Amino acid sequence: MNLGALNPEQHQAVMTIEGSLLIIAGAGSGKTGVITHRIAYMLEQGITQNHILALTFTNKAADEMTHRIKKMTGKKLSNLTIATFHAFGVKVLREQAKLLGYRDGFSIYDSSDKREVIKDSARELGMVLEHEDLVDIEHLFGQIKTGIITLADQTTGMQNLFQEYQEFLYLKNAFDFDDLVARPLALFQSHPEILAHYQQRYRYIMVDEFQDTSLQQYQWIALLANQYRNLCVVGDDDQSIYSWRGANYTNIQAFEQDFPERVEIKLERNYRSTGIILEAANALIAHNTNRKEKALWTESTDAEASLQVRYLENDQQESEFICDTIRTLRVSESRSYNNFGVLSRNNSLMDTIEEAFIRHDIPYRRSGGRSFFERKEIRDTIAYLRLADNIDDDIAFVRIVNTPRRGVGKQTLATLREHSDNRKESLYCTAKRLLDWEKPPFSAPAVAGLRDFTVTLDQFRERFTLHKDMARTAGDMIEAFDYWGGLLREYPNNDKVAKWKYDNIFKFLSWFERWEKNPDNLEPKLSLYLMRIALAGRERADLDDTAMVNLMTIHAAKGLEFDVTFIAGVEDGVIPSSKSLQENETNIEEERRLFYVALTRAKEKLFMTVCHQRRQMREIQLCQPSPFLHELPSNLIETEDKELEPEDIERLGMSVFTMFKD
Ligand code: ATP
Ligand code: MG
């Protein structure tokens, strides 16, 4: 391993492996790099992989760290734990499932599954809920679980609903997303012997992106580190962008209090961005009042560097501009598609841009928010797999028992539900039990459909337990259920769409196969794959590694870097988001931090686009440039050469005129 490239502060941070360490430093100063070097150094010092735990924010970041350490050390890293908080939670829950009364191979419920469970719980209590109620209750339950509000403060009705909801999750052998942190924490708090076990195991703990760690997550690692007190946290308060979901940089203060013996190291040199980009980012963030003052400098003065703002008529032109620029730069500066990133504040803005990429045949990967995994055919496939893995997963059952159609209608489901509620037995087991009756209480087509469904599923459940050729088994299962026939019936006049959807399924299964056949994968089990995609679904972790342009929200881009970065929709109301400001005016600082995160992703070139009109939903809206643009020193910004016509100036507003003047 070569430590020579590190600067003196980074070097000190890497060598300080005993005790607690706090590194609060600006973007691109090598914080993540310090963690990877530190782990490599620990391994070199003979610390066993088992004793090391590194936590980070996205699966992509975790994979990248693992990859780097592997390259540095040339070691197989099968016993090293580098994970997101949620993935680490899954690991603990799997090990402790029995204690909680859960079986191995539990399901993980996302937002839409959660709403189904809330609906079921309400039905059980005789409550009627509207869709908006569901959304609000889901949010409320999340806040209860993450410890932001307490259950005791809720009305009795709500408390009952919450208890029922928990009971339902338990019956379905499922955890929801919030449980993945809340349950392990509760377990550590209530079982000292379990805590001691994990404290002995994880003696060296590191946390990246510490500013976005939630209170609960902090409590969890602080407990874990309390025995050996080797806890290293790195972060940047200027990049705190999750305060709305309980992540809060008061954790930095909590850490300072809980670990008074800590060493603090400052990293002030930015290695990522060229001078102009860094200068612009520094000027922007200086407008925030609530921050730790930091110096951040760079030596990079690249001739290719530039910072540009482009004013465009509408979002169509915006996406054309982005595609054109990428194509041109790729050829003229021989850059690979990988080196481009396109960011936006809102995921919805990305739809138009994505369409342009498709039109122009530019390979891209979109992450954050709605994704490949949310397509109906993929959700269906996952539901088949989930049910094969966990027969108590009623949500998956309901989703696919009649997909493709096999005569199992509402009435049949209602009957099934009634019988399953009485016995507190899953729908699947209930169906099998009732089918054994001499006269099953269903219509003739429903009996045939259910019988076919359960027999086929049982067959495949059997095959999955062999833990061999699972992706192939999954493909066979999709065929056995005649998903293709279902698609053709659904799109009778458009078999192109059917074909595309069917291909998506097999693309998904090819990722599954790649995961399954990866020699580093020591435990290729269906339940583990399902957990992995449940965790990665929202960010679509790198399942595909061919060169593609990266399209993502700013939130999803945290910690990443791109040679050429585009920020689309730099408009008032988009960033800062009017929705966020309506909730609370003080959110302006968080919005500025978001913009700061976006700016600091760029290494050499940064393009910001501003539209005059934008289509949102079905309406055309007139837009103004983001006020944040005025906070960037105008001498740094290039705009297009074209002379502005007087009406352009009027249209764009005086504020912009001042920017063009320079
Ligand atoms: P962020 O705040 O965005 O998460 P960070 O502080 O984690 O950023 P890194 O991602 O670790 O920063 O590093 C930023 C870039 O700087 C990377 O490309 C990294 O390789 C490079 N870098 C870091 N330290 C050095 C160094 N000593 N010499 C050369 N390059 C370095
Ligand atoms: Mg980082």
Automatic annotation (TrEMBL):
Q: What's the top EC group for this one?
A: isomerase
What GO MF terms are annotated? 3'-5' DNA helicase activity; ATP binding; DNA binding; hydrolase activity
Q: Where is the UvrD-like helicase C-terminal domain?
A: 275-559
Q: What's one GO-annotated cellular component?
A: cytosol
Question: InterPro entries, alphabetically?
Answer: DExx_box_DNA_helicase_dom_sf, DNA_helicase_UvrD-like_C, DNA_helicase_UvrD/REP, P-loop_NTPase, UvrD-like_ATP-bd
* Entry's Gene Ontology BP terms: recombinational repair
Domain spans labelled UvrD-like helicase ATP-binding: 4-274
Among SUPFAM superfamilies, the record links this protein to: P-loop containing nucleoside triphosphate hydrolases
Q: Which branch of life, at top level? A: Bacteria
Could you tell me the keywords of this UniProt record?
A: ATP-binding, DNA-binding, Helicase, Hydrolase, Isomerase, Nucleotide-binding
Q: Name one Pfam family in it.
A: UvrD_C
Catalysed reaction(s) here are: ATP + H2O = ADP + phosphate + H(+); Couples ATP hydrolysis with the unwinding of duplex DNA by translocating in the 3'-5' direction
Binding-site residues, ATP:
A25, G26, A27, G28, S29, G30, K31, T32
- EC number assigned by the record: 5.6.2.4
Q: Which family does it belong to?
A: Belongs to the helicase family. UvrD subfamily.
Q: What is this protein called?
A: DNA 3'-5' helicase
Q: What is the lineage of its organism?
A: Bacteria, Pseudomonadati, Spirochaetota, Spirochaetia, Spirochaetales
